[in-house]
Here is the input.
Amino acid sequence: MNYRHAFHAGNFADILKHAAILMTLSALQARQPRLTVIDTHAGSGVYDLRGPAARKSNEAQAGVLRLMAGPAPAALEPLKRQVAALNEGGETVLYPGSPRLVADALRPADRYVGFELQPDEHRRLRENLAGRRNLDMRLGDGFAEASARIPTDAGALLLIDPPFEKADDYGRIVETVAAALARSPAATALVWLPLKDLETFDAFLRDLEDAVEAPVLVAETRLRPLDDPMKMNGCAVVLLNPPAGLEAPLADVAAWVSGAGEGGAGRVWRID
Here is the structure.
């Protein structure tokens, strides 16, 4: 997997991830007067689907372009609205990353803190979100710094979406979530993961259960069987301390996203 998210912007995995982020954010805002969103791997915030990276992979065809071209579940409407607004109602040529989606949904009392390790991506992030209030965009290692930013006196949502180019990414996710929930046990964490083979996914979930005592909600979508570890055969969103009421809309989104493959399937399940 290429770290530069421009290669994957607006693909099927982004649809599941970003729909989950928006519905989780909305549910937390309904019960929290102030919310801080911490993003460990922010990226550049906006992606040009006409750029060479996006055209090379062409992954947006099965994701956002499919989403904008036809009917979709009600749970995907917030994402469709934000994509349409970014493109001013015209052709879908720009896709919003997590920082842009969150920034557009923040209330005056809310705050976003995003970390980006790559200097050029960080520069583009600052340019793409220039002039907006309540945003703190930091150049640095989100794994190393995120847990210290989790507030203890307000609601918190931790977003973790690493590139999975390094062997220790899974372990660092577990360490970061454990540290964040040790600091603020009521915080919500949302982790995105690729699904390549079942053993890697199961091992991650076992490690997470051993390290953290919190309810877990898993939404996964598979485009094909998990029998080729060299391919991204699907993806999953893992929510710790999930707000109530997300099971049904997440299941609708997971099922719709799986329709981009042949013989795919989506499901949502809990670990309590």
Observations:
- Strands lie at 35-39, 46-48, 94-96, 111-116, 135-139, 155-160, 188-195, 216-222, 234-240, 265-271.
- The first strand starts at residue 35 and ends at 39.
